[in-house]
Amino acid sequence: MRRWMVGWWLGVTVMAAGPAQACQQCSSYLTCAESPTGGVMCLADGGACLLAGRCAGHMGFQPDSRPLIHLTILADSPALARVGPSRVVREAGEAALGREAVRVAGGSWSVAPDGGVLYSGFGSMETGEGAVAAFRSPRGDGFTLERASEGRGARLTVRELAAGRPGRLLASERVGERDALVARVTLNGRPCVLVVQAPTLPGAEAGARAEAALRELRDSDPGRVETPIPPFEIRILN
User: Fold this and answer.
1) Which residues are within 8 A (CB) of 195 and not within 5 positions of it... i.e. 6 or more apart?
2) pLDDT at residue 217 above 60?
3) Where are the domains of the chain?
């Protein structure tokens, strides 16, 4: 498996973000870990790790919980017609990634073994006050995602990316720690389905959830030889 890291020095565009509780870094295993310095957002897919945003650090303070994110982008298909513009799937599971994300969205992994998965990754997203993560394709389109922790879940807001800024509202929902938001987005000129989970969990539980996410990704594609380049770059807007 080809293993690589993408930071703000290799194509993930960075803009200043608001204050954050904790910074993120890519570990030597290319998974996301808390750090005194680093990025505001981190996503890993088992073979690649992406960082975005410049984080000021929390000066040694250990936050009580970690704002996790599980994010999958699926190619739209007739099998996913029941998704509608957006919906929340309650009790979607601990790790709606890879083949589980296909199931949650209403598709069938057995019909399409690759599940039409364009990207699936997990990590942390501490965006601070008013900060938004923009997922931009090489064509300049995409979507934005804002995460605001609420209890053990979060409120997720998804908008169309328009001229590099948040545009038309696509979804705004509160999701519990095991729920998933499923929404239609456009990326690289093609219709896609976004599946997002956002549990907010204490350290030990967050670690266990990360292990479950990594297992799901490996089980979904056990024969993968290399990691495809993600179909987007991440920019933190403020």
Assistant:
1) 70, 71, 72, 73, 74, 96, 101, 104, 105, 180, 181, 182
2) yes
3) 65-237
